[in-house]
Amino acid sequence: MYRLNIDNDGDNLTDIAFSWVFSSPASDGSQTYSFFNTDDTKVEYNASEPVNDRERWTDQFVHLLGHTGGYSQEEAVAAIDEHGLLPDVLGFDPSKPAAYPNGRTFTEDVIDIGVAFLTKNEAPPTGLQPHTDTLDRFPYLGDPHPAAT
After folding, report:
1. 17, 80, 96, 138: most buried, per Cβ within 10 A?
2. Is residue 12 part of a domain?
3. Which helix (DSSP H) or strand (DSSP E) does residue 65 occupy?
4. Which residues are paired to 22 by β-bridges?
5. Neighbouring residues of 119: CB distance < 8 A, sequence distance ≥ 6
6. What is the pLDDT of residue 71?
7. pTM for the whole structure
8. Tally of structural domains, the chain
């Protein structure tokens, strides 16, 4: 699983550092990062059961959204609900098209989606387009490109 770490040591968006780290459920916590947690809370967050996420983490998520996007408490709770962030489980309804927040497609730019959400669209998606030469089956990677001569 990948989680995005946002290190918010300051009181505005310029004081925030972003990083991605892979973690497995069996990791020791030193490599686990989440969207809204600090070094002090990431181990607890990654070890917790999703059923408890809303009660345990809503206040922290609301606080961070206030800093990153200027969300009011009401706006933050509504955005958390709209994006289905708590519990931290990516749902999928096969009767609907696959696209975030209903699952994800291989080519979705989830970083752009996440940063736009965090900043209340002050940092909107960049429009970066995915590769078009991917396969429609695992491992999805397209054929290697020929070496430049």
Report:
1. 80
2. yes
3. helix 53-69
4. 2
5. 13, 68, 69
6. 96
7. 0.64
8. 1
Pairing of strands 16-22, 2-8: antiparallel
Residue 134 within any structural domain of the chain: no
Estimate to the nearest angstrom the gap between the alpha carbon of 124 and the chain centroid: 15
First-residue to last-residue Cα distance in the chain: 38
Confidence band, pLDDT 50/70/90 cuts, at residue 34: low
Answer for the pair 48, 37: CB distance below 8 angstroms, yes or no: no
Domain that includes residue 16, residue range: 2-118
CA distance 12 to 10: 6
Residue 78: band (very low, low, confident or very high) from pLDDT cuts 50, 70, 90: very high
Neighbours of 53 (CB within 10 A): 17
For 84: left if phi > 0, alpha if psi spans -120 to 50, otherwise beta; the answer is left
Answer yes or no: is 145 within a domain.
Answer: no
Answer yes or no: are the C-beta atoms of 8 and 16 closer than 8 Å: yes
- Among 45, 47, 39, 35, which residue's Cα sits nearest to residue 6? 35
Q: Is residue 114 part of a domain?
A: yes
Q: Are 23 and 3 in contact (CB under 8 A)?
A: yes
